[in-house]
Amino acid sequence: MQRAGRKPGEPIYLKRHILGLILAVVIPIVLPLLYHHYIGPLSFTTQLIAALIIALIGSLILYFTYRASARNEP
After folding, report:
1. What CA–CA distance (Å, rounded) separates 29 from 45?
2. How many angstroms separate the CA atoms of 60 and 46, rounded?
3. What digits encode the pLDDT tens for the residues 24-33?
């Protein structure tokens, strides 16, 4: 049996969406840790603020990526 396409309201999972989601979750954690390891120590407050800013930017990118592909969906 073949599936007759997506059901109404079923989410669209493209590879770029999954990759973007993974990066949005991992990068805010990894970047401050890499900075701390290779450049110098960061206070907990600085790490927290950097992670929040990076997460905010990542979430905005994901929002616009999902919104653009959802508009193109028939």
Report:
1. 13
2. 21
3. 788 888 888 8
Q: Token pair of 64, please?
A: 């616009």
pLDDT tens for 24-65 read 788 888 888 888 889 988 888 988 888 888 888 888 887 887
Q: Is the pTM of this model over 0.70?
A: no
At 26, list the tokens: 């991992």
Interior CA angle at 49 toward 65 and 33, to 5°?
85
- Find tokens 């999902």 and name the residue: 66
For the record, the structure tokens of 74 come out as 């028939």
Contact (CB, 8 A) for 55 and 28: yes
